[in-house]
Amino acid sequence: MQETEVLEGSEAVAFAVKACRPQVISAYPISPQTHIVEALARMIADGEMDSEYVRVESEFSAASVISGASAAGSRSYTASSSQGLLLMTEVLYASAGMRLPFVITGVNRAISVPISIQVDHQDTISLRDSGVIQFYVESSQEAYDTHIAAFKIAEDPGILLPVSVCMDGWILTHSYERVSFLEQEEVDRFLPPFKPKNFLDVNDPKSWGSYAEEDVLMEFKYSIHRAMQYGKERIKEIFSELATITGRDHGGLIEAYRTRDAEVILVAMGSMVGTIKEAIDKLRSQGQRVGLIKIRCYRPFPFEDILDNIKVAKVVAVMDANFSMGSEGALGMDLKAKLCGRRGAPLVLDCVAGLGGREVNEKRVLEIVERAREVEESGLPLDEPYWAGLRPEILPEGAENDRQGKIG
Amino acid sequence: MSVREYLRERFMPHLWCPGCGHGIIMNNLIRAIESLGIKKNDIVMVTGIGCSSRISGYLDFHTLHTLHGRALAFATGVKLARPELKIIVPMGDGDAIAIGGNHFIHAARRNIDITAIIMNNRVYGMTGGQFSPLSGYGTLATTAPYGNIYEAFDTVELARGAGASFVARTTTYHVRSMKEIIEKAIMHKGFSVVEILSQCPTYFGRKNKRGDAVEMLKYLKESTAPIGSERKRKNPALIERGIFVEEDRPEYCAEYEKIVEKAQKG
């Protein structure tokens, strides 16, 4: 019988991390991640958890500490947000290169400037090329379950990469939800102690992070990519193994929601997915054939699973809570790159939604579906991504002539 | 000029909690600038992230609100581009000495003409009361429920050791000397550091049972003494305040100019 409690999302994550028995935790304060590491500090201080906790002088040091701990053969963990994740970036590329399997909670928050503490995905998306596996979650329960899976995925001998569980700041970390917990013995059975084949051992010296000449560097990089590609099947297996224990199936790399006969399919990740499901139910009750693909695993990019679910779709509308300045949203770009040249591929409508905490509500979703219908009717893609909910009245004069959101 | 002319009232109310010492520092900073008669447009204020750093929003100078710990690095760029301007960098203890510690020691080493004001309330207030490198051994914080095991930096000694040519310490209780010290620091040619012990009744005070803001101010009065005073001699545990270093040493921008001149002569 699983224990169920109503508690803050941050605390649910802290309980998941505790159950995974990390040996080293290192962190630096930044909102809205702080409650997670504070809860862990308390658990350690209260003797409920046996872990080394290092409060360092910056996120750069936090990422470095857990990388060192991981290389020494310890299961390690950190959490951060926004600027903190950006400051970790240099370290995380190195950690992925060294194939160090730790877990980071990436609590999503916008990036300066302007300074904002509200949610969007720009911070973790900026890490997409680093070699860190990325999951995005919709609820606190999914955050709890995914963290437990994350350690096992990271440490899989065929994967060996850092894993980031990305969860929306405030909306998930600071709201209270019902969360069910596994028994410690169940977690221990699922996730045995970390016993890496390679670690820093005085009796068997090895090197990490050595210089690579031009004759081998590409192979090192390709190996990370291969581990990600191999990871796709393994991640699904680990998720379903966990689902049999928890009785909760959140899906594999994606969750397909009412997509079977859908003409318009939305693609999104994070907490906005819940709102989108509600809107889809409403549209379905009016007879509209719409569906949703929730991206659970963003890196590796689950293209094959997406393709299986958009076969009859005419338009796929991607809702990106991030933007690559001068181009498009990351999710939209990924999808289009893979669709390009495929016979019968649906049109892709790129939307930017929810930057800096701009609300993504039902009305916004309905607007996007409406725009997708216009694209479907015209048979042409957009000139420029559609910035859903943009306020033209506060933009400089002339912005009304922009091609933003216009059909080509 | 009235104090109001230095404030951006559209940014009010400010975010500092009732009893916070940062308002006292802002007040004295304005008074110091006013009595020096420096034009608002000749001042650039650069801040990082934290409660203290919000000061750049409230004051009507040229202001640059930058990244956590990086204010001095941004300020160095400003100073090199416009060496004739006065650069003031208010920072919190975490901002200046933890994440920004590297920039702090190197700005001091360069002796670049910037005024660094460290608003030291011994805690990360904005994120909820985690201990900072200035909290000190044995203090309580949300991340140290059974007491902090880290020793604190002595900011004065750190700045002196790193090469700052003006180093002073005061508190939010000692408002008159605070104004005078800030004036001297701004006028000093070289890297000047003013550590101002400030009170955070919301986190440091509450966690460490230091009472309300008034009690904390009394503590700042009682736990400090002027450099070399009778009180300090009698009670060596007291924290000294006053000007520790005030030396005339080659300043970075001036030296830079000289090198450019020398190189151009061939």
**What is the 3D shape of chain B?**
globular
**Structure classification of chain B:** alpha/beta
Helix content of chain A: 25-40%
What's the pLDDT, averaged over the residues of chain A?
A: 96
Shape of chain A: globular
Structural class of chain A: alpha/beta
**Uncertain regions of chain A: pLDDT < 50 for 5+ in a row?**
none
What is CATH's topology name of the largest domain in chain A?
A: Rossmann fold
Fraction in beta strands of chain A:
15-25%
Short description:
By secondary structure, chain A is α/β, with parallel strands linked by helices. Chain A is built from 12 helices and 15 strands. With 266 residues, chain B is of the alpha/beta class.
Q: How would you describe this protein?
A:
The complex is a heterodimer of chains A (408) and B (266). Chain A has helices at 9-19, 34-45, 59-71, 82-97, 122-125, 140-155, 184-190, 217-246, 272-285, 303-309, 330-339, 362-378, and strands at residues 3-8, 24-27, 52-55, 76-81, 103-108, 133-136, 163-168, 176-181, 254-257, 264-268, 290-295, 297-299, 315-320, 347-352, 386-387. Chain A has 408 residues and is α/β, with parallel strands linked by helices. In chain A, helix 11 links the parallel strand 13 and strand 14. With 266 residues, chain B is an alpha/beta fold. Chain B has one domain (3-7, 17-265): Rossmann fold (3-Layer(aba) Sandwich). Chain B is 39% helix and 18% strand. In chain B, helix 1 (22-36) crosses helix 7. The radius of gyration of chain B is 18 Å and the shape is globular. The termini of chain B are far apart. Classes of the chains: A alpha/beta (408), B alpha/beta (266). Chains A and B meet through helix 2 of A and helix 4 and strand 6 of B.
